[in-house]
Amino acid sequence: MDPVLFTGSLIVAYLLGALPTGLAVGKLIRGVDIRRYGSGSTGSTNVYRTLGRIPAATVVGLDIAKGAIAVGIAWAATDGNEYAQALTGVAVVAGHSWPVFSGFRGGKGVLTGWGALIALSPIAAGVTAAGWVIVTVTKYVSVGSLFGTTLGAIALTVLAITGLAPMEYLIFSVVTAGMIFVRHFDNISRLMSGTEQPVTEPGKPTRARTRHS
């Protein structure tokens, strides 16, 4: 494996993950800075609560694509090296969660992580999709996200241990799940205190809110 291409794929993955899709969609579609609304997150849940279904669906698609594309780049650049693909998956989720382009205020990393997982292991990604069912039933995105993340990590670990996936993918499984749980720290606290807000009707702002000092 060429160390230059390996390092380059990690850098590209972080920068790709750091592209502020939620921020860009908010400004292009509605002319708002999504960081000034709701939770302040640039993730799809806050976009849905603030801007509505179509902007949120756009962010969902872009965030998933970021993860899958990043792993695909690593696969092409390193001749399919599993170690490089796993670390690239970690890098793209880190970029999405702590993006250099928007003051290190990003999303939770769930969808981007899922996109990377789709590229790494479609089977584990399919198991992770159970999180969508939990969101539908409970109306709590955080619950579904954490549930799906846990299932995906377990599935990928089992696949690796049984030889159905490369052992190197355990790096992605453990580290990415850890980052997603860290990004959900506030949500977990609110769930424990009973103050977490469910997702109900999408919002429909029409212009940016002025921030007062």
Helix content: 55-70%
Q: Largest sheet at a glance? A: none
What Rg do the Cα atoms give? 17 Å
Number of strands: 0
End-to-end gap: 52 Å
Structural class by sheet pairing and helices: mainly alpha
Instruction: Please state roughly what percent of the residues sit in beta strands, choosing from under 5%, 5-15%, 15-25%, 25-35%, 35-45% or over 45%.
Output: under 5%
Can you characterise this structure?
- The protein has one domain.
- 69% of the residues lie in helices and 0% in strands.
- The protein is built from 11 helices and no strands.
- The N and C termini lie far apart (52 Å).
- The C terminus is likely disordered.
Summarize the structure.
This protein has 213 residues and is mostly helical. The protein contains eleven helices and no strands.
Keywords:
globular; 213 residues; mainly alpha; 11 helices
Please describe the topology of this protein:
Elements: H1 3-18, H2 21-30, H3 44-51, H4 53-77, H5 82-97, H6 110-120, H7 122-128, H8 130-138, H9 141-161, H10 169-183, H11 185-193
